[in-house]
């Protein structure tokens, strides 16, 4: 049946089996089961509890007409006598629902809200009446411009730079929640222009306009947005002197043929533009490394709990229901595919104790048969009396016919958990001083919320 047929709509409303998706004070009704479902009521039983005569037609479900409407408080009496159910904020509890139920309740919420907010004409102030089953409104008498529901397009973007992505958080979000940057499209803008503008306004980061690529979209009816998702790349930092100095240090760490393998992760940090956060829009914005995000999205509760304690906070990303999650996950998958050729990626780059002051070493895990394959590893232990103890322990783990472990240098780490900072300094009398700035770049990938400082003085 079509929404333009008043007679058919009237017949559908009178249908003995017609259903109602209730909306009460902006909340939706779901079951209290382990896997909650949307609660759909019998329209004829619920009709006396509606706060409006304007039912909104949602469509047919197995041939049965389904409507929605704002309800009176008395609807709770009808519900309490039926199935176990609860009224919920759909933004908070919608992700618990299966996709079809979540979409149905979101559509109901959006159309009820739109009809209530368009009770009068914005142009003349005249009362507006419902048409087309609640999907249009017009001034009483049927004269004047017909008004339809509008959507507000918003760009949401995952900005990357090498193996890092830029994520931000708003102060009203749950503690530790980070997500992609986003913002509404302004009049006269293309979608790509909005992506670049929002990133620069909110985080002070310049995006390469040629890198902006559309990925996916998601309706977000809270109240009436359409999220349009993009991937984009930040313009690299122009601090070439710092990058060249790091390259010089890198040459002392690995075989020359292996430099391209470690540059991919280490020098990427030096290319990161420093965020300048607009604190009116965001509470924070920072870069997160690929390996950090992979740990957070993994099923290893122990690993993420360990990271949270060490970083001094609870960290979380949007759930799988959100477009932001899709953008982050797809980026990780592409990066992982691009890095599939890298050797021994499964070996943790950083494994250090999370409190106290202790000795540390920077190791090179080397492929015996192929000099161009190597990994740099940071290891630190409070239990180690000598740097040699850490080296020998790692050699026992990794020495084989294929691999060998060599020490690049050593020093000390002071891990100040309460102060949320890490100091890397000092030297090893047996292995000489490690290039601490290289060690720090690796440590920051694991501890993005801690301040990591370097000093080449001390013992």
Automatic annotation (TrEMBL):
EC annotation from Swiss-Prot or TrEMBL? 3.6.1.22
- What are the names of the required cofactors? Mg(2+)
Sequence ranges assigned to domain Nudix hydrolase in this UniProt record: 149-310
- Is Metal-binding there in the keyword field? yes
- Report if keyword Hydrolase is assigned: yes
Extract the Pfam families matched here: NUDIX (PF00293), NUDIX-like (PF09296), Ocnus (PF05005)
SUPFAM superfamilies listed in its UniProt record: Nudix (SSF55811), PHP14-like (SSF143724)
Q: Which UniProt keywords apply?
A: Hydrolase, Magnesium, Metal-binding, NAD
Matching CDD domains? NUDIX_NADH_pyrophosphatase_Nudt13 (cd03429)
Family membership: Belongs to the janus family.
Checking PANTHER family in the record gives: NAD(+) DIPHOSPHATASE, NUDIX HYDROLASE, NUDC SUBFAMILY
Q: What is this protein called?
A: NAD(+) diphosphatase
Organism per entry:
Coccomyxa viridis
Gene name tied to this protein? g2673
């Amino acid at each position: 049946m079509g929404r333009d047929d008043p007679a058919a709509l009237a017949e559908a409303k009178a249908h003995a089996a017609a259903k109602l998706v209730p909306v009460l004070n902006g909340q939706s009704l779901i079951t209290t089961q382990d896997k909650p479902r949307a609660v759909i009521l019998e329209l004829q039983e619920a009709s006396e509890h509606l706060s409006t005569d304007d039912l909104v037609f949602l469509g047919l479900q197995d041939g049965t007409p389904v409507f929605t409407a704002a309800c009176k408080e008395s609807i709770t009496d009808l519900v309490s006598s039926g199935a176990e159910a609860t009224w919920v904020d759909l933004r908070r509890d919608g992700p618990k629902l299966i996709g079809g139920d979540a979409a149905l309740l979101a559509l109901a919420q959006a159309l009820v809200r739109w009809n209530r907010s368009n009770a009068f004409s914005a142009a003349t102030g005249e009362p507006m009446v419902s048409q087309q089953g609640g999907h249009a409104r017009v001034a009483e008498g049927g004269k004047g411009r017909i008004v339809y529901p509008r959507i507000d397009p918003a760009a949401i973007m995952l900005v990357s730079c090498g193996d890092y992505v830029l994520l931000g958080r708003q102060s009203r979000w749950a503690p530790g929640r980070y997500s992609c940057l986003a913002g509404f499209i302004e009049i006269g803008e293309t979608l790509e222009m909005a992506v670049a503008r929002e990133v620069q306004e909110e985080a002070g980061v310049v995006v390469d306009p040629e890198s902006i690529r559309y990925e996916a979209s998601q309706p977000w009816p809270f109240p009436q947005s359409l999220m349009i998702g993009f991937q984009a790349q930040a313009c690299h930092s122009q601090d070439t002197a710092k990058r060249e100095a790091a390259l010089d240090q890198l040459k002392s760490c690995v075989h020359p043929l292996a430099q391209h393998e470690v540059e991919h992760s280490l020098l990427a940090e030096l290319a990161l533009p420093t965020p300048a956060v607009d604190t009116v829009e965001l509470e924070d914005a920072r870069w997160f490394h690929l390996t950090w995000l992979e740990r957070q999205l993994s099923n290893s509760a122990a690993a993420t709990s360990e990271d949270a304690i060490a970083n001094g906070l609870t960290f979380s990303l949007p759930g799988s229901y959100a477009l932001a999650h899709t953008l982050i996950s797809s980026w990780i998958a592409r990066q992982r595919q691009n890095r599939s050729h890298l050797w021994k990626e499964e070996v943790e780059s950083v494994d250090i104790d999370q409190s106290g002051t202790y000795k540390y070493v920077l190791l090179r895990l080397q492929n015996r048969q192929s000099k161009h394959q190597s990994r740099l590893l940071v290891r630190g232990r409070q239990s180690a009396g000598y740097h040699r103890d850490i080296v020998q322990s790692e050699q026992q783990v990794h020495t084989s016919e294929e691999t060998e472990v060599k020490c690049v240098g050593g020093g000390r780490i002071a891990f100040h958990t309460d102060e949320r900072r890490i100091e890397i300094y000092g030297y090893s009398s047996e292995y000489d001083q490690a290039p601490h700035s290289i060690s720090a770049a690796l440590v920051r990938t694991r501890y993005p919320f801690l301040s990591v400082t370097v000093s080449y003085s001390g013992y």
